[in-house]
Amino acid sequence: MKEKMMLTIGHLYPEKMNIYGDIGNIIALKKRSEWRGFAVNILNISEKNMLKPGIIDIYFMGGGQDQDQIEVYKDLIQNKKKVLQRDIKDGAVVLAICGGYQLLGEYFTMGDGRRAEGLRIVPIETIAPSTKVAQRCIGNIITNLQPTDEIARSGKSTLVGFENHSGRTRFKSDKLIPLGDVLVGTGDNENAKHEGVRFKNIFGTYMHGPFLPKNPHIADEIIKLAMERKYKNKVKLKKLDDTIEWNAHNAVINKFSK
Does the annotation count 217 as an active-site position? Predict the structure, then answer.
């Protein structure tokens, strides 16, 4: 009997970095893999857990409250930074939402002046202008994928989600590629008009909602990249019936597009 192909998903800090339905991204990756006959192993990785290199195929981390993020940052730097850096350099796929996206960068300065050091894997910085709710970036967001992106060339060129963040993220290298150009919403910051980042096999974004159920093309790209890295061969994913997913995606576009 042929052994099933398997993915191992590492869910970083599920207790503290899991707001606005971010765990739905884990569910989407799991189900979309299983519907294609792949086995899925999910490892919940908390502060007390150590990482071993080469085990995780897909890392996921969602958003969290500021205090929780500070505690998570400390553990990441002290206990997990070297393994994460090594795995990402080796091609491990990463989906990082909001706070997870921020901590991949150099640092995050909060509205009250506290500073959390990041992993310095992606050359970005994040600064919150204040603690005032009025200065948060809140609302539905729609973006266009970059025209050079393989997913955009397939004809599925939009992303939708919900942003709720105080931090403004700025690129510190002109070699970084945004995940998308903002059509509706704020994105990384008011001046840049782009949202998220594609860097190596990292997908960083401020889109909550959760993100993947309404953007199945990104979910499949993540699965495909992880499978090809693990099995060192091209992978063609079985087509799924995504009628419900695309109806949800298009409902956001139809309601909020300018």
Answer: no
